[in-house]
Amino acid sequence: MASGWRAKAVWGVVAAGVGAALVWAMAPRPVLVDLATIDRAALEVTVEDEGVTRIRDVYTVSAPTAGKMLRSPLTVGDPVVAGKTVVARFEPGDPIFLDARARRVAEAAVEAAKSGVTLAEAQVDQARSQLAFARGDLRRAAELAETRTIAERALEKARLDVATAESAVASALATLDVRRRELESARAQLIQPGEGGVPSAACCIDVLAPVDGRVLKLIAESEQVVPAGSPLVEIGDPGDLEIVVDLLSRDAVRVEPGQPARIDSWGGEGTLAARVRRVEPTGFTKVSALGIEEQRVKVVLDFVDPPETRRRLGHVFRVVARIAVWRGESIVTVPIGALFRSGESWAVFSLADGRARLRPIVVAERNQRLARVVSGLTEGERVVLHPSDSLRDGTRAEPRPH
Q1: In sequence order, what E strands does 238-354 have?
Q2: What does the alpha-carbon distance between residue 88 and residue 237 come to, in Å, rounded to a whole number?
Q3: Domain-located, residue 278
Q4: What pLDDT, in 10s, does the model give residues 60-109?
Q5: Is residue 167 part of a domain?
């Protein structure tokens, strides 16, 4: 009987051990989680986007008159001095081609001018003949007046006739000169392109730089005929830069003049300090790389650092601007990675007594790393980072070993 009792006791212990092992094996394991401690920190909220640098004042030099512009003596990047550096040189342009009708009209004008010259020459001959005749009359009247054969009045009349004839000759000669100039003008209308000859050095126009700076763009470089007002070259001072950022309209409403900004990804070492100067009051539509229409607003920033810190930065260079729209010191913050949506509010999982507890919280300003806690968490509590779908309120959890 005793041996039987002992055998039952042994089997009972074995069964209890197996049952305990099964319970332990089937029991849910604590979920391993990454934790962060709620702490006080400085929080800066920024809006950021890509922007471009640009020279504040860009001057476009235009053609002062129509003509043939010679090849530009400049290249992009050349320095220019206001009132001294020649940025463009002009020669008179060639005459236009004449079609059949225009040529016939011009030829007819030449023939008419020739006839006018012939008529004027005949009028000169006639006037000279009348002058010779009047001078003969005057000579005879003078001889007769010496013997008192004619009256003094007749002598005066002969002198008047000579003076009138001399004036008629002068008038005829002037008319002849006018007709010859008209003939030259009519013949000039027949000049075709390439027949004008080489212009003199005094005929050209030099266009000088309006300001000190450097050549930014040669709009017209090769020799060509340009109309008056055509843009030729752009000039500006690379040391006088500003930044233009096209922000989404929902971000632009948070930006105000005077707010500080940081300029990153500009190609040099470190970041550059800047400040918002102007937020333009009108927006525009811009199509994103994904084909989505977005409303954008131009925001203009000024550099705060001296030009020496951005020596290699030039006109229309790409940068990334981060504008600080809010900043707080020593405030309770929670990592963004701990937040998730629970219904209509934000929530986190805190770890207390080995179990995860669902904690609805209220947050305000936030950036890419931290959010400001308004209520729901206190300094020193631990929250779960990046909670998985397996985590529920009351689930056993323990920190992940590192």
Answers
A1: 241-248, 260-264, 272-287, 293-303, 318-335, 340-342, 345-352
A2: 19
A3: yes
A4: 999 998 888 999 889 999 999 999 999 999 888 777 788 888 888 888 99
A5: yes
